[in-house]
Design a protein that fits this description.
InterPro entries: Carboh/pur_kinase_PfkB_CS, PfkB_dom, Ribo/fructo_kinase, Ribokinase-like. It is an enzyme of class 2 (transferase). By secondary structure, the chain is of the alpha/beta class. It is built from nine helices and 13 strands. The protein starts with 12 loop residues before the first strand and ends in an 11-residue tail after the last helix. The N terminus is likely disordered.
Length: 309
């Protein structure tokens, strides 16, 4: 973001519902040596797609950001402190039976800094309707749902309750599909049924193509925008596509960056996009803000923004 955040949102909070996990980031160079050692630089950092989006939204100027998530007793205090440091108001449900989710992020330090995830969702996908209260929407101008909520029966039930509550209050809802791998297990038809009523869909290129069966991301974004009013397809180094009413309306270029770790780049885009949208920006301009945040994210290790001060 060139060291500055966009103007604060005009009014109303952003509520994010999603995953809060611990990321173990292992940066290595070249192929993994199977059956022996591979030298790596390893760091443990806070993560989770939902939590990352919330932190980037706060970093990029959203006036108030709230987060509902579920963590284990083992790391609850740490995650609450880290979220607060990023300017997020956390509401973390402490799970007495499951540990905090953990993701091992294997990052190849080659030119693309591509990452592979090993995911133990732990408590994060144990959010359920009992963790929800309609009062969470008091003063909320937009609800964002992490797509990881779709990947367990309990959190799917919560997603449905939250979406219905938002629709009853006229609160617009966005969703990021989160994982092409998990989408395959869930099924495309089931996904599209579950997200009925969502106003903004923010898939990656792979997710958009998977959800439509089309090889070209522009065609995929256009087709998805017949199901969801606004589709913003994130394309990494190729920028973003903005689609409405069955057609791509804008192609937003990426911001040049030298990648160190692509973990959380899509979350950074989503957080910045939502902050700009809340501030009154047009979707095309909000997508440009998202590309700036994504460029900043890939030059850092981990999925969170720098903490000011």
């Amino acid at each position: 973001m060139n060291g500055t955040a966009p103007p604060a949102a005009r009014g109303g909070a952003l509520l994010v519902v999603g995953d809060v996990v611990t990321d173990v980031v292992a940066r290595h160079r070249g192929s993994l040596a199977v059956g022996t050692d591979t030298a790596a630089v390893i760091r443990t950092v806070p993560g989770g797609a939902g939590a990352n989006v919330a932190c980037w939204a706060a970093h990029c100027g959203a006036a108030e950001v709230r987060l509902l998530g579920r963590v284990g007793r083992d790391a609850a205090d740490r995650h609450e402190r880290e979220l607060a440091r990023c300017g997020v108001r956390p509401r973390l449900v402490v799970d007495e039976e499951a540990p905090t989710g953990t993701v091992i992020c294997l990052v190849d330090e080659g030119a693309a800094a591509e990452r592979t995830f090993l995911t133990d969702s732990g408590a994060s996908l144990r959010l359920d309707p009992g963790d929800w209260s309609d009062a969470l929407l008091d003063g909320v101008a937009r609800l964002h749902l992490s797509g990881y909520l779709l990947f367990s029966a309990r959190s799917r039930a919560l997603l449905t309750v939250a979406l219905e509550a938002a629709r009853a209050r006229g609160v617009p809802v966005s969703l990021d599909p989160a994982s092409a791998g998990f989408l395959v297990e869930l099924g495309v038809g089931r996904f599209l049924t579950l997200v009925e009523g969502v106003d903004v869909l923010l898939p990656s290129r792979d997710e958009a193509c998977l959800l439509t069966g089309l090889p070209d991301p522009a065609d995929a974004a256009a087709k998805l925008s017949r199901h969801v009013p606004l589709v913003v397809a994130k394309q990494g180094a190729d920028g973003a596509l903005v689609a409405r009413s069955g057609a791509v309306r804008a192609r937003v270029p990426a911001v040049p960056a030298v990648p160190r770790d692509t973990t959380g780049a899509g979350d950074a885009f989503t957080g910045a996009f939502l902050a700009a949208l809340l501030g009154g920006a047009r979707p095309e301009d909000a997508a440009a803000q998202g590309c700036r945040a994504g460029a900043l994210a890939v030059e850092r290790v981990g999925g969170r923004p720098p903490v000011r001060g």
